[in-house]
Amino acid sequence: MEFGSDYIVRPIQSTDSLIPFKTGSQEFQPLKAFLRNQAIEFQLAMVAQTYVCILLEDGEDKGKVIGYLTLTCSELDIKNGYELSDCPYANQYDSLPAVKIARLAIDARYRGNKLGKMFVALALDVTTQDIYPTVGCRFLITDAKANAVAFYKTEGFSELNTVKNLTSPNPVMFIDLFKTLNE
Amino acid sequence: MAIKSSTFGRIELSGKEAARFLVHMNEDKANPKAKENLEEGKALRAKMRAWQEKHQS
């Protein structure tokens, strides 16, 4: 699928068609419920921004949503972890600014078209071109569902490498924007 | 608890998790796939802006 001929991406609108969106299995129902019931509300409340992938119909945007990404401001709080005797990096930052991928879902009928990868690329551009230059942002983070860990790893995320995190049902995953931009 | 997180909130790390995160932050190398997606994101946003300008006028 190609941008501009098959689909476009833009912020969600209250007129978008959200009901036909299908996640395909019971485990993804919360993602469908969020899109239908909360995505607009969160956007209007300025709590999160949802970008939707719109399937073009006869070359026109008629609001048919086939995927979405929800971003929100977040932070990584690490101050409770400092143990000065054994942590050589202590006394630098108590918390680190981040943008969180709160939701990412593709309609089951349109998976396999690299739309998920496209949304990760969009999240990276938003964080590095809009957020970091204006207010600072060090990480793109997510609490991945277990069945999405492989996808996020493929797209450049790292897992916090501890036993507790790796065995968590929603492991913390991150991209260090500083390294991504500067190395 | 060593990891506390909510879908629309912050992530709190403590103990071993916080210490390990600091090591990641200071010692990991850039992920080539993330760099590739960063470039693809720039191209995508350019297309999004072009589409918007074309269809708003």
Q: Indicate the low-confidence ranges of chain A by residue numbers.
A: none
What is the general shape of chain B? elongated
**Helical stretch tally of chain B:** 2
The SSE string of chain B, one letter per element, is: EEHH
Residue share in helix of chain A? 25-40%
Q: Major sheet of chain A: size, sense and barrel closure?
A: 7 strands, mixed
What's the total count of β strands of chain B?
Answer: 2
Could you state the oligomeric state of the chains shown?
A: heterodimer
Bin the strand percentage of chain A. Answer: 25-35%
| Cα separation of the termini of chain A | 31 Å
What best-fitting shape of chain A do the alpha-carbon axes yield? globular
Strand tally of chain A: 7
Measured by residues with Cβ under 8 Å of the partner chain's Cβ, the largest interface is: A-B, 63 and 44 residues
Structural class of chain B: mainly alpha
Rg of chain B, Cα atoms, Å: 19 Å
The helix content of chain B is 55-70%
Average pLDDT of chain B, to the nearest integer? 90
CATH superfamily of chain A: Gcn5-related N-acetyltransferase (GNAT)
- The stretches of 5 or more residues of chain B where confidence is low (pLDDT under 50) are none
Content-based structural category of chain A: alpha+beta
Radius of gyration of chain A: 18 Å
